[in-house]
Design goal:
Strand 3, helix 4 and strand 4 form a beta-alpha-beta unit. This protein has a single domain, classed as Rossmann fold. The chain has 145 residues and is of the alpha/beta class. The chain is built from five helices and five strands; from the N terminus they run βααβαβαββα. Strands 2-1-3-4-5 form a five-stranded parallel beta sheet, with helices on both faces. Helix 2 packs parallel to helix 5 and helix 3 packs parallel to helix 4. The chain binds ligand CA2. Ligand CA2 binds next to loops.
């Protein structure tokens, strides 16, 4: 049976490639999902993708991953900096997860420097653009026996 990773993209990431190319580049969410899926296939995994602008929908998808996934790759968008609930969902399912940020959150506004996931993520990839999703998949896959 192919092992599965859940790819989670949070609020506003549906706008990728549509607005703000100077910060986030020109790739779309579909491109991101393909990059992650291809990297996962290289490592022998398949990917289920979800993007939502609603915190509860993201939390439900993370809970469901407990049933049939072996790890999670997540770009929580702005929820990175605000959401204890998302942190609790991710720690609650006891699966290793990778936190991805397309932009260099350490060199933008001060409020983007703090992440509620920073001390519980197995892998953190920051500021590599959309290729960071491939790095995150490879690094996470390497941790999964
Ligand atoms: O750099 C990242 O990947 C972020 O997680 C993206 C979030 C931002 O709130 C985080 O601080 C860093 C924003 C999601 C994308 O928002 C867009 C808005 C307009 C156009 C394209 C994307």
């Amino acid at each position: 049976m192919t092992r599965r990773l859940l790819l989670v993209n949070g609020p506003n990431l549906n706008l990728l490639g549509v607005r703000d190319p100077a910060v986030y580049g020109t790739s779309t969410l579909a491109d991101v999902e393909r990059i992650a899926t291809d990297a996962a296939a290289e490592a022998g995994f398949e990917v289920r993708s979800i993007q939502s602008n609603h915190e509860g929908v993201l939390i439900d998808a993370i809970h469901a991953a407990r049933e049939d996934c072996v790890g999670v790759i997540i770009n929580p968008g702005g929820l990175t900096h605000t959401s204890v609930a998302l942190r609790d969902a991710l720690t609650g399912i006891s699966l290793p997860f990778a936190e991805v940020h397309i932009s260099d959150v350490n060199n933008r506004e001060e409020f983007r420097r703090f992440s509620y996931l920073h001390d519980v993520a197995a892998v953190r990839i920051i500021g590599e653009g959309v290729d960071g999703y491939a790095t995150a998949v490879a690094r996470l896959a390497a941790l999964i026996p």
